Amino acid sequence: MENIIDKVNDFIREKLLLQGIQNLFVGFSGGADSSAALLLMKDQAIPVEAVHINHGLRGDESDADERWCADFCEKNQIPFQAIHVDVKGDAFAGESIEMAARRLRLIEWQKLYTPNSAVVLGHHLDDLIETFFIRLMRGCNSGGLSALKECVDIKGVRFVRPLLVLRKQEILTFLQENGVDDFCEDSTNSDDGILRNHIRHNILPLFESKDPQLSGILKSLQFIAEDAEFIDSQIDLPESENLSLEKLQTLDGPILNRYLNKWLHYKNPEFSFSHQAQSRLKDALKQGGYQLIDLNKTHFLELDKGQLSLIEKNSEEAGFSYSWNWQEEPELDIPEIGMTLYLSDTKDGEQFDADKLAGQLTVRSRKEGDSMIPFSKTHEKKIKKILSDSALLKSEKKHLAYICNNDTLIWVPHLKRAEFARVTESTKRVITIDIKSMKEY
């Protein structure tokens, strides 16, 4: 038992997994892996909370798991909370249950997440090897084959895997020595129709019959990860959400593939390029013009106005309308487009003559027939025309905020400022409105 604890603690120190971390959330399913992770993290000098996400996919079995987790935490004096998500009800059209569950879990982690915290997951070395075989069968490169990392940031949430130094049997031994001989078992784990289960029950035992510790495979995985890390270090991505098509057209073969995969991993570590998507993208780069490429069940790749972007398939134009009392509320969140409007103390945003503004500004989505008199102009111009002339991507045009003073459109961030309420020599009061991203959305 001491050896297992020491192995985990040494791994945490070596990889700096908890450096600067002040709060830990442990993803607690009630299974052996997450039970061990919870007990091991309890001994760290950091506050720990167990979080059980009930997906509601297995009816009474799911509810029984939740009760077991609550009882386990009460017995071990560990703070606990359960979160319910409706995976089937909230899945996108064409989205698999697994992908929907992963997406909804991330949303819940984003809600819980606080600065200097980390989410602990119970993945171990057996999971690492199983993932290697799954991705090997999918034809992944070295980056994909070694993609299960001990630490990863996904959309602002830090996930750590401190058990990636243990085999499954070591985890079971640790639990037994700590008096835990009963834990939740997902009934689907015995279904060999699921690829991961088939690998676990049928393929790995063949390798273990020749190499019980699977030390050869683990050593190879280490080499693959080191090679992938070096190659990635040689590729610098731009500090922007989208890629320049001009830049992509200068890259060839493996370098282009690695560049694209690194960008996609930055956008979403769970995504990978299929051979079909890569082939279509390379053809699109040669053809030019607007292109929309099917990446997976939930996202497209969009080639538009010299840029490559990743867009959701359900990315409809967001509909919203808010009344903003800017004199009393210095910030306004717009979750539909992930934007916050705020009064700025600097001159970085847009400046307005405060005395010409109503106490309540309307912030809404686009309406048919919208128009404005652009800044420094005298004639009205349709927003449709302004959008057409802009450099915005089609997907970006769907996620804009239209700020109105009564019925007068005064500013569309990222697009155009109106002449209305211009600051002049006679202006007595000036306000500056700026925007920022809502990282939690």
Overview of the structural elements:
- This protein has helices spanning 2-15, 32-42, 60-75, 87-90, 97-112, 125-137, 142-145, 168-177, 195-208, 215-233, 245-248, 253-267, 275-287, 383-389, 394-397; strands at 23-27, 48-54, 80-84, 117-120, 151-154, 157-160, 243-244, 291-294, 299-304, 307-312, 321-324, 331-334, 339-343, 350-353, 361-364, 371-372, 381-382, 402-405, 408-412, 416-417, 430-437.
- Helix content is 37%, strand content 21%.
- The relative contact order is 0.09.
- By secondary structure, it is an alpha+beta fold.
- The chain is globular and about 80 Å long.
- The chain folds into three domains: 2-231, 3-Layer(aba) Sandwich (Rossmann fold); 235-312, Uridine Diphospho-n-acetylenolpyruvylglucosamine Reductase, domain 3; 321-437, Phenylalanyl-tRNA Synthetase, Chain B, domain 3, CATH 3.50.40.10.
- The model has no long low-confidence stretch (mean pLDDT 89).
Mean pLDDT score: 89
Please identify the oligomeric state: single chain
CATH class of the largest domain: Alpha Beta
**CATH homologous group name of the largest domain:** HUPs
At CATH level 3, the topology of the largest domain is Rossmann fold
